[in-house]
Amino acid sequence: MTMIKSPASRKSFLRACLLTTTLISLSACNAWDRMTSVGDNPKLAPIEDPTHSNGYVPVKMPMPPPSLASSEPNSLWHTGARAFFRDQRASRVGDILTVIVTISDSASVSNETKRSRNNADTASAANLLGFESHLKDFLPKTVEPSSLLNTASTTSNDGAGSIARSEQIDLRVAATIIQVLPNGNLVVQGKQQVGINYDVRELTITGVIRPQDISSSNTISYDQVAEARIVYGGRGII
Q1: CA-to-CA distance for 218 and 172, rounded, in angstroms?
Q2: 42: which of 33, 74, 76, 228 lies 20 to 30 Å off by Cα?
Q3: What's phi and psi for 23, nearest 5 deg?
């Protein structure tokens, strides 16, 4: 066994041993965490206030100039009301409505590219100011001045690709009003997580809606959501 006598070499050896030990310890901890979670369902995210998230930014859109509300004394009807009695549809921050997401989309794209190129170069020095007879003094005797260079190249490229895509989503997700814009439009956001066979399906929808587009059953279709951001995916074993 070779002894490490140099102090610098000894320090390098100790650093390498310490680094190796640390990596082995981290790998063992990671493996232990995976083994202890075998057979457990993926944990769902806790319910959170979306306005408190780090990336939340209030929606700002062009608004018409504000107008003063006219008072109507001794009247059961007030300006802006959508019904004689109180409207039970979502209209204030914190109210909940249902967004119906029904998407059936398919696309097919094909592309084909072909390219070819031919190139030929020829160079000779049959007459070079009378010095062509002296070229053999500097070049091998087998060199022929009349055919110094003759090259040819051919390039071809063929490419083809195709994309076939089909999606179908039919879901209903409850969304919460998180902001009321100055013109009365509502900013909504909804999240839904469903655990199925050790997998978690996630649906997120965010956008701007008009109060008058909300049906009497307090639902609205996804195609009536402006600036809609719909994300559907999942995580888990599969």
Answers
A1: 12
A2: 228
A3: -65, -40
C-alpha triplet 55, 57, 58: angle, nearest 5°: 155
Residue 160's contacts (CB-CB under 8 Å, 6 or more residues apart) are: 110, 111, 112, 113
Name the token pair of 189: 């956001």
**Residue 192 token pair:** 């839904």
